[in-house]
Amino acid sequence: MKFSQFFIPTLREAPGDAAVASHALMLRAGMMRRLSNGLFAYLPLGLRSLRKLERIIREEMDATGALEVKPTVIVPGELWKESGRWDTMGEALLRVKNRLGGDFVVSPTAEEAVTSLVRDDLSSYRQLPLNLYQINTKYRDEVRPRYGVMRGREFIMKDAYSFHVDEASLNGTYQDMGRAYRRIFRRCGLSVIPVRADSGAMGGSGSEEFMVESEIGDNTLVLCKACDYAANVEKAACKPDFAPLSAAAKEAAAALPPVSRIDTPDVKSIAELCGFLKMDAGKFIKTLIYRASNIECGDAEARGFMSPEFFAVLIRGDLEVNEAKLAALVRAGEVCLADDADVVRLTGAPVGFAGPVGLSGLTIIADETVSAMSDAVTGALAGDAHYRNVAFGRDFTPDIVADIRTVVAGDRCPLCGGELYEKKGNELGHIFKLGYKYTKAMKVSFLDEDGKARTPIMGCYGIGLDRTLAAVIEEHHDEAGIVWPVSLAPFEALIVPVKYGGAAKDAADRLYTELAGLGVDTLLDDRSERAGVKFNDADLIGIPFRIVLGEKNLAAAPPLVELKRRDSGDVRLVELSRAAALIDEEINRRQV
Ligand SMILES: [Zn+2]
Question: How many whole angstroms from 81 Cα to the centroid of ligand 1?
């Protein structure tokens, strides 16, 4: 390919809104252009890298036996109503109507589409396991798209959905996917942190996220300094820093003087309360009223929640509630603190004075730390008043006790007790044991060996392609531009004749033909630009091998060329006649 015939509109400066390196470099190198907020179009150079990434993913998926399909991007709303997600997905789901008034969605993910695909033709256990994948356009109506393709509205995802007769079969495919993902990211030159959803102690993780460290990451990761424990803060656990109440402590609690009311005029915050009562925040039980939205499939009632919408949440005063854990616990799309008016209405007390003693009409959820509190202070459900001598189990009994605390740096590792620390990360991929959620809701069944109808169990496995490409640039760039790993470089070699004419032109053309003959993806800079401009563009678009043809070197006997590696910056003179073979050899050595 000749530079002059290609379309590489490089820019000296990145637009002002490009806050991260990958965004700025993808625009500057002429890989993509912004069409609108969160919408980006790939130009020929960017598309070449994207296609190479697709190829790597395809090869690794195919190697596991997964089968590629091509579902539609526009999917009937009916399917999403069947799964229940029409109601629970919220505003991120782009819903459209066709001319007949029918409901459709622009797929943000394809559990429904693929489950429906399988449902129609699945009859026997002999057809299972089945793992179907697609590499396709997706759309999420993000509130705040940013950082270029790192968090766009339209994006490309590889998503796979597997169907199995039982959990053992699902586990096998889940492990295969985990290994395939590690190979994919390794081939892209990425250092990913596999983050498990559980502690990893049981060996049966239900989900694993593949993260890259990133200052602009929208995930907080909790990692252990001593072992390889890594978890998303949304799921992270820590070694308990409390002891469950012993028999003696329970006895002591029973012997505790009864709850007594104390006047706490104008004491609003926990800090003020601690100062007023001269106690640690850890002696206080915070009571927060949460509002849950989009509770799954309207099953709040079935699970005995007193209000389908509001919950009272108790946590030790020195800790914070982890809203993701809480939402997962009550199976809600989202939870947030209730409005002041709702708090007053539900607790009968001003904001800041809620407490569990005597609280009725709300399901009470306590963090497990609260279960070890036998002599605590709480709000008294009345203005300017608190209770002391409050004992768990004696003065109040929560409906649910669970781990809903936010783990923070400095807490102890749940596996080894080592110190935990935090990092920001971006999720590139996710593998997940879905269970029966979709196959049950959408009534998928097969006949087992005994001719009995059964529901298949599912797994799903996603990788964001645009994000992965951006993450590769984040990890591989310098101040001059992108430093592509060979596997994803839009071209592997770039021939730069200082002047494209005379003997240099002949040599460049010959070298190009030779490299092409060896299967090396080569770009020839035939432009009549100054050498400096050509070199700057070469650094910016980051092609791994650059061969510079200058008059003086070509006039040597034998003729020489300058071979420069973009990653190390190493420059050496090699014989023109050997240049193609050398590059081919280095490329193949690197890709092993
Ligand atoms: Zn550890």
Answer: 43
